């Protein structure tokens, strides 16, 4: 079972049962409890369930309306690339990728209390402000340009660059560079930019 399928199964089970033990999920999905904890981490950050002793419980029904598009460009977010901003009023804005996430983050940085993105290799949630970003790589994910990939570890980003080209940037450097390139190139996917 793919991780995305497993997470969807977890969503269904939590919604159906309201309270689920980690051990039950592990047994039913035939994966380790550590895998379940990793799968639950981004779902817990969405706020519709909370961690309890030995399990999770439903706090509110997850949104059943269709997923809204990216806050910047309107594209449907790919869960492997998303960048989320948690704002002071507890709203969560989702960008389809680190490119859009960094642009939006710069626009509203005084309102942001937390930003998270996905590590390109491990697909784990990481702090966007502590992540490392790769730009100008040969890998094309057919998302916004200039393409920006996020990595939790600098050495992993550097290894990626050795194989696929590009440059490694810190959070502040990536935010500045994306903004500069957008001004320079006037990318059509961001008309409001």
TrEMBL record:
The keyword Chaperone does not apply. Residues 3-58 form the HTH deoR-type domain. SMART domains: HTH_DEOR. GO terms for molecular function: DNA binding; DNA-binding transcription factor activity. The keyword Lipid biosynthesis does not apply. SUPFAM superfamilies: NosL/MerB-like, Winged helix' DNA-binding domain. InterPro entries: DeoR_HTH (IPR001034), N2O_reductase_NosL (IPR008719), WH-like_DNA-bd_sf (IPR036388), WH_DNA-bd_sf (IPR036390). Keywords: DNA-binding, Transcription, Transcription regulation. It comes from the Bacteria. PANTHER family: HTH-TYPE TRANSCRIPTIONAL REPRESSOR YCNK (PTHR41247). This is DNA-binding transcriptional regulator of sugar metabolism, DeoR/GlpR family.
